[in-house]
UniProtKB/TrEMBL annotation:
This is DoxX family protein. It comes from Pseudomonas koreensis. It is found in: Cell membrane. The chain crosses the membrane at residues 12-31, 51-72, 79-99, 105-127. The keyword Membrane applies. The lineage of its organism: Bacteria, Pseudomonadati, Pseudomonadota, Gammaproteobacteria, Pseudomonadales. Belongs to the DoxX family.
Amino acid sequence: MHTAQRNEWAPDAGLLFLRVSGGLFLLWVHGLPKLLDFSAQLQLIEDPFHLGAHLTLSLAIFAEVLCPLLIVAGLLVRLACLPILSVLLVALLVVHLQWSVAEGQFGWLLLILFTTVFIAGPGRLALNVRLPGVLRYA
């Protein structure tokens, strides 16, 4: 492969790495623990909008399990970023507003990561490229 061809695919490889590593990290650290220990998590989850612990936890699981899986696969990537960004913003700006930047650095880094994916899109190494029309850009 010529250098020009390698460089042509470098941004897409970078986006693939960002999507897969970020999505799996969020899934492993936040999503799966909530999903696999649902009952215990019901007692721990904050409910800042008074939706009820069950609904709040279900929404968090949607954002931290299903959405990262879509992002890793490269399906509806920009749409899948929105619930993740929402959960992160609520956590950082509502639930843990008292945290310093140092205390919330993991959340801020995830916010930066998934905002980047949202802005840049999934790249050419994603299943999105196989979807018709407007879904390709979602």
